Amino acid sequence: MSAQNPSPEAADQSLHIVLRICKATATYGTIGLCTTWSTLALYYDCQFPRLGTVAACSYLLATIAILCLTGRRVYQLLGCMACWILVLSWWLTLEPSNSADWQADVARTASIDLVGTDATIHNFRQCDYQSEFNYKWSDRHVDTRSIRGVDFFMDYWGSPWIAHTIVSFDLGDGQHIAFSIETRKRMGQSYSALRGFFRQYTLISVVSEERDVVRLRTNYRHGEDLYLYHTRATPAFARSLFSNYADQTNRLFNHPQWYNAITHNCTTQIFTFKTMKNQPHDWRILLNGRADEMEYEQGELAGDLPFAELKRRAYINAAARAADKDPWFSTKIREGRPGFASEAE
Q: What is the DSSP letter of 218?
């Protein structure tokens, strides 16, 4: 018994059904995404929490009414898109501010006076921890001619796809200046990846010694894993990158900016710097938990080892805990790690 080919009419009918399913999926998928985003934006970002709850519920009811009372999909889509545009227009008017009841670790914003080769860092964070939130600030003077290289830390606290990046400049003689672009949280706030897609946090450039910004994460917080890499950056590149960080620090001091978990975070901000403009674009800039692998593949990491072995040996938690209050903390956490020359060289 031979199989019969379907008639042209049957084939056309099947294609018509597939197209209808695709159109319906696209329409209701778009409506679902717009509704979800708008509802969460109203709930999280409304200045008054109770009003935000009411607004979010009202938006959901309006969407249900549009879907139930409008017969044609095109009108359902247009109605829901109109509601989404209204919420988006409001959301875009929300302005960040440097004035709030900030948590202790981000209570002050750094700024940097860079005149020739002399840099003065104001509100340089330098905490010798007795507890996690015992912070102090001072001025720090740096001769940028002493900058001879760049290291970076990868801080993981959950998913291997997401990490926090800290960039550190080697001044020689065991001295390092670390820049950590972070979320600036108000009292009572904690970090949430979901809230990070909305206007819940602003950005802050924390400028610090490693005994503060690194030791906080290895010795005083729990559940965070840090990896330290030395880059092949030349002294000239390192000094240029330091200047970019100074510019970014001053911009955030004068003009606060919203944090966004995907588009404006600790890693994406680095790749907006002028010094980094010629760096290849890569999806791992967004999923930054793999940024060290990206840098390795581009030949930017020192240490001639397979990546898996390099990363294993870059893990510093145990060394940081052992060094703890040692004034040579930065030297201790680098000892024996591939790619690092001794501090005496």
A: I
